[in-house]
Structures are given as C-alpha cells and as structure tokens.
Amino acid sequence: MAPPEKAFPVSWDQFHRDCRALTWRLNEVGPFQAIIAITRGGLVPAAIVARELGIRVIDTVCIASYDHTRQGDLKALKGVSADVAKLGGGTGKGLLIVDDLVDTGKTGRLVRSMMPDAHFAAVYAKPQGKPLVDTFITEVSQDTWIHFPWDTALSFQPPIRDGAG
Ligand SMILES: O=P(O)(O)OC[C@H]1O[C@H](OP(=O)(O)OP(=O)(O)O)[C@H](O)[C@@H]1O
Ligand code: HPA
Ligand SMILES: [Mg+2]
C-alpha cells in the first residue's frame, strides 16, 4: 500500500480538546461500567475520557499491527481480564472501548469480535475504519497520516510550496 501523502499533526492541546469533545458525546450514550483501552495509542484518550466520565475500572486489549506507517499482521497480545469480561456479561454490553484512531478498521474489527455489544469510540477516523466505530470526533481522508504528540517533536518544516506534506 502507498504511504499516506498528507500529514495531520496533532498537538497535546488539540488532542486534549478532541478527547473532551469525544467525552461530551459519550456522556449522552453511557453510563459505562468500565473502559477498555486498545494499546498503546488508546491509553492516552482512555485516561482523559475516564477522568471526565468518572470511570475507575480500566482494562486493556493489547494489539500491535503497525511498524511506523507499515501495516503488518495483527497480533492480539492480551485480552480483557476475567473481571471486566464478567462486567460486560461476556458480550461487552455496558463497556466502552477507546482507541486513538481507526484507519483500515482491522484493529477495530478484531476488538469488536471480542466484545460485539461494547460501545467503540475513537478520537479520529478514516473512511475505511469509520463504519467500525460508534462515536468519533474528527474524520481525515484515507491518504492522511495522523501524527500524535507522543510520536513527534518540534522540528523545522520545509515550506509547502517546496513539497512539504
Ligand atoms: O484501523 P487500523 O488500520 O487497524 O489502524 C488503527 C490502529 O493502528 C494504531 O495502532 P498500532 O497497531 O500502530 O499500535 P500502537 O497503538 O501501539 O501504536 C492505532 O493506535 C490503532 O489502534
Ligand atoms: O494515521 C495514523 N497515525 C498514527 N498511527 C496510525 N496507525 C494507523 N494509522 C495511523
Ligand atoms: Mg493502536
């Protein structure tokens, strides 16, 4: 697959605002018994959403697929704990799954298959992944790469006219 052409850099401030906007929507849908963060990217929005919704039971589903921008095979490294699975009645009902973004939707599809009745929220969504999420805040085009603040640092950028993404 061709590498994404456009860059969508997100600052910490913007990310925090987008997570709060996501929480305003989720607050209309809940209540939720627990949050499940899809690691690692989902840990950051999960902490913010949990704080805003007052949720203290937080678990992880650990999945890896990308080596920087290259997508490899999905690896499910860890599922939810028995306690949290029980809270969701085995199907995820009343549980909130949080990730930073959905791109092709592969990760989302796998997690949804584990907890079909859970509510799945992502901060950002690309068109291919959008049908997988119940709630998201901002859509970007499929050929855009989102640069998260925990993956980036301030650096010089060449002018757009000279070919900057
Ligand atoms: O919709 P998809 O095409 O499956 O892509 C979305 C997933 O890819 C990224 O995670 P990644 O596997 O890079 O791991 P990380 O969260 O540890 O960075 C991102 O955090 C999502 O979980
Ligand atoms: O656009 C993206 N940005 C960061 N990580 C990702 N993992 C899949 N797509 C993306
Ligand atoms: Mg991830």
Feature tags:
4 helices; alpha/beta; Rossmann fold; 165 residues; binds magnesium ion; binds hypoxanthine; 6-stranded mixed β-sheet; two-stranded parallel sheet
Describe this structure in words.
The chain has 165 residues and is an alpha/beta fold. It has a single domain (11-149), classed as 3-Layer(aba) Sandwich (Rossmann fold). 27% of the residues lie in helices and 30% in strands. It is built from four helices and eight strands. The protein has helices spanning 12-29, 43-53, 82-87, 106-114, and strands at 6-9, 34-39, 58-67, 70-78, 95-102, 119-125, 138-139, 144-147. The protein has a six-stranded mixed β-sheet, with helices on both faces. Helix 2 links the parallel strand 2 (34-39) and strand 3. Helix 1 (12-29) crosses helix 2 (43-53). The longest helix is centred in the first third of the chain and has 18 residues, at 12-29. It is globular and about 55 Å long. The relative contact order is 0.20. Bound molecules: 1-O-pyrophosphono-5-O-phosphono-alpha-D-ribofuranose, hypoxanthine and magnesium ion (MG). Magnesium ion binds at residues 38, 40-42, 99. Magnesium ion (MG) binds at residues 38, 40-42, 99. One of its GO terms (biological process) is XMP salvage. Homotetramer. Its main location: membrane. It is a peripheral membrane protein. Xanthine binds at residues 103, 146.
